[in-house]
Amino acid sequence: MPRNxxxxxxxxxxxxxxxVESPSITDxxxxxxxxxxxxxxxxxxxxxxxxxxxxxxxxxxxxxxxLPIINARAEGxxxxxxNPSFTGSKAIFRSPAFQKPIFFHRCLVIADAFxxxxxxxxxxxxxxxxxxxxxxxxxxGLYYLWVNPATLEKHHTFTIITVPGNTLLHKLPYTRMPVxxxxxKENRWLKPDLSLCAILGKLQKYPSRPMNAYPIxxxxxxxxxxxxxxxxxxxxxxxxxxxxxLRQTLNTSGWYHHKKRxxxxxxxxxxxxxxxxxxxxxxxxxx
Length: 287
Known about the structure:
Blueprint: E1 4-7, H1 11-18, E2 32-34, E3 39-44, E4 51-56, E5 71-73, H2 101-104, E6 106-111, E7 113-117, E8 125-130, E9 137-147, E10 154-164, H3 167-170, E11 176-178, H4 196-201, E12 211-215, H5 227-230, H6 243-247, H7 271-286
Parallel strand pairs: 4-10, 5-10
Antiparallel strand pairs: 1-2, 1-7, 3-4, 3-6, 6-9, 7-8, 8-12, 9-10, 10-11
């Protein structure tokens, strides 16, 4: 279950990628490590043409206290051992916290990568991403507008739906992963007329082949540390990648847009270096 994830794309890149506007967002800087309690970018079922800010950690509308839910298990109370081969029915809709939002409050959670911690040994964190520069992508989420009964203050909040991890996640090892929605078909998750069967059918694990991961510093816990250094690899990638595919992601203006295809003589750069280059370029343009 991702408690931290990365938004490295510019707001303009995200708006272009998903064909949305952002009239309510006036202050958003590129380069964020999202943790529970942070504001992040989502697209809601209610307004599928608008990207908004919402707080990571969903609080059900009926809750009397701010007890945020970071992740929602697709299986509900079933599959307590997180068996990756689980074939039983998905029971998320049986949970009181998700009975209404699974039908009426679905959302797309924007991300460029997410972070998972190995469950053995030193609990090493890994940056997990989609290969071939497939970012930003979306994770399936649910949201609620919670009103604090004591102050009447309104809080827009969201959670990320998870499923048993694929073979890549188990190599870390880790047992769960977010539901990553297929590129070009993300908006189907927001359709208001989806049947329960169709909704549950979209809660599938993403295949390992188009994904990869590499170890990063445990200092990722400290959001005040240098963004670039936090995302630098400190070890080898979990899966081998074909060099020709890697070169397609070099010398880009951000996490999503491609420019020229570099020659074989050009030096390679890490993901973290590309993010920092993009942030520096944007600051220069703003200045």
